[in-house]
Amino acid sequence: MTETGFNAEVLPMEVAVAPGTDTPRILFVNQASVLGGAELSLLDIARLLPFHNRVALFRGGVLFERLTQAGVAVDILDPTGDGLSRVRKNSGLWNVLGSLALLVRITWRLQLLAGNADITYANSQKAMVVGALASALARRPLIWHMRDILSADHFSPTMRRVAVMMANARAATVIANSHATAEAFVAAGGRRKLVRVIHNGIDSKPFDAITTQMATLARTELMPLDNGFLIGVFGRLTPWKGQHLVLEAISTLPGVSAVFIGDALFGEMEYKHTLHKRVECEDLRGRVRFLGFRDDVPRLMRAVDAIVHSSVNPEPFGRVIIEGMLARRPVVASAAGGVLEIIEDGETGLIYPPGDCAALRAQIERLQNDPALCERLGAAGYNKAQACFSRTAMIYSIRQVVMDTYLRKQHRTDPKINNKDAAEN
Ligand code: UDP
Ligand code: GLC
Fold first, then answer.
1. CA angle 255-258-263, nearest 5°?
2. Does ligand 2 come within 6 angstroms of the Cβ of 38?
3. Are 320 and 352 found together in one domain?
4. Which residues, at least 6 apart from 217, have a Cβ–Cβ distance to it below 8 Å?
5. 214 and 352: one domain?
């Protein structure tokens, strides 16, 4: 980073900020400190957006470490507590009210930080609620990067109402990670004119860096005794991500083995335990491995024959799908939500109806029996991901939204501009 926060890795070709304009100061806010897709995306944005970036996290954890290592300034809002983690997405009014004292404390701390920034940028739903209150107190504009589908599958009516009400009242812009996420926001009562869709973008370099030799070595580590068709399922372990469905699908495909990469990030230990128990049964024994959370996803993706996405509810976006494409592997994904904005069935991947075990089984079997199809889908998927889901394009689009918000704010608060407007009218 240079002094102005300009990062040559992403934006060498244009002046990031219009001449004569100060560099905006952005305060990102995120609730979780584990590494889910929203947090990995935030890591890229906070590192690469060419502004003065600071991040406020509700609590400490691995995200704090990663941001700090990347040179991003981070504040923790609730260093000794649990950072509102007792308030769940499906919490009702009483649960929310029960955490009121903590909510007030976190909001107060955040508004002090927001007052020293030009824009508050909320990266999660709880962060948006607290960010809306804090940015109102600090009289600063709010951007909400919305990464969840606001539906009854994941959110209680109270949570949906609060989110929509706050966003309508306070957000200058709602960035949705897919059209599916945007439409769910509007269907829940959100104002359409606030929304801009910006898909996640992924850096292809770590995938391109994996040679065939490295991939072969990784494969022997994964399944030393196996010569069959190996699928990889990447993502946190949680019932709606549908890992159980994959186990059932391959239980009657004896030539197929599977590795599961990811952990229960939000306390879904019972589900994890159920999955582990299931693979001890005769029909799956010796064919499945759980690797937990891994940092070498590109290497592992290049080591498998195909990548399976199994969410049983609509996936808001699905970074793992783009990553699978960048690894040049055929991706089988569940046909709902953001997935339909990424994959053209039979061209850049294969899809199947969410939760349909027989259909998933059939798509895996199809790939197992057709190496040429795997090759074709892998190549086309790679080209599509490069062309449509690049990290550079994502950073450019977000930069534009932030600049628009910043300039609108300057326009409102700069007396010189306001006087000039008054004289012209
Ligand atoms: N991931 C990872 N290590 C793991 C499992 C997953 O780094 O062991 C990453 C994965 O590469 C992807 C992200 O976690 O970038 C998951 O994002 P996605 O959008 O697919 O799902 P989310 O968890 O956000 O719902
Ligand atoms: C959320 C969504 C996921 C999306 C990610 C990044 O975690 O569950 O689908 O890819 O955010 O925006």
1. 170
2. yes
3. yes
4. none
5. yes
Give me ligand 2 centre to Cα 252, in Å. 31
Report the predicted TM-score, pTM, of the whole model to 2 decimal places.
0.92
* Contact present, 295 and 175 (Cβ < 8 Å): no
In sequence order, the 6+-apart residues with CB closer than 8 A to the CB of 292 are 261, 262, 263
The reply to whether 43 and 191 lie within a common domain is yes
Looking at the structure, tell me whether residues 114 and 143 fall in a common domain: yes
How many angstroms does the Cα of residue 294 sit away from the middle of ligand 1?
10
Q: Which residues touch 423 (CB under 8 Å, ≥6 apart)?
A: none
Nearest-angstrom CA–CA distance, 224 and 210: 20
Adjacent-strand bridge partners of 390: 202
> How does the average pLDDT of the chain come out, rounded?
90
pLDDT digits (tens, 9 = 90+) for 217-272: 999 998 866 669 999 999 999 999 999 999 999 999 999 999 999 999 988 999 99
Under 8 Å between Cβ of 291 and 260: yes
